[in-house]
Amino acid sequence: xxxxxxxxxxxxxxxxxxxxxxxxxxxxxxxFVLVFALITSTIAVTFTVGLGGLEDAQxxxxxxxxxxxxxxxxxxxxxxxxxxxxxxxxxLRLGGGELAFDDESEFRLNGTGFExxxxxxxxxxxxxxxxxxxxxxxxxxxxxxxxxxxxxREPDLLIGETIVYSLYGLDGPAEPVSGDRTVLVVSERTDRxxxxxxxxxxxxxxxxxxxxxxxxxxxxxxxxxxxxxxxSVSTAGPSDLTVTxxxxxxxxxxxxxxxxxxxxxx
Length: 266
Hints:
Elements: H1 2-8, H2 21-82, E1 87-93, E2 98-102, E3 106-110, E4 117-120, E5 123-127, E6 132-137, E7 140-145, E8 148-153, E9 157-158, E10 162-171, E11 177-178, E12 182-198, E13 205-210, H3 214-227, E14 231-234, E15 241-245, E16 252-265
Parallel strand pairs: 10-16
Antiparallel strand pairs: 1-12, 2-5, 2-11, 3-4, 3-13, 5-6, 6-7, 7-8, 9-10, 12-16, 13-15, 14-15
């Protein structure tokens, strides 16, 4: 009977009022499961968020590298215009982006002292992460995000008693190049000429611009208009932007027009 009494007796509490060691094993198992679940969740969240952030950083750095390559491209095109160099080549790593020749822009210089100077198209565009575009157009380099952007390198323009304006006409391949590879952008000068306009009483020069970078061009020429009296800017005409160089404030207007053919090669 005494043995039966011992077997039927309820669990006893220890001296501190807790459960016996056999019952604490259940609590340790639950704790292990909770800690393991917490560690697993932390690793999963860190991996997911961290990997996405790392990928965004890689894409941003890729676009920055292309931007630096377009700086070199800008200088090489200036060599064709200023120094009459016959050709230049620029290396550009695509890094999964696309490089294309676009013909959606037009720059038209009108004056009474020379035949109208026009370039149609002639922009090189790199499409990178998201809506980011890096563009070379008429002597300037842009970094665009949709319709907004900034001008990274300015066009070749000298303003004083004599104004010297450079037009860059480009012709390029119809097919874009893309992928994770390095391409060589080869530019070959096909024409180079100079036109001059001596000032007369009403000999204003107008520059009409139609471009997907029109908002940035407007900001650029608007800043010049604030600095120089001979420049005024309007968006009221048929073109996206009209810049007027007023004859009362300059003696001569000289146009350097350079035409080049662009090719992509490995």
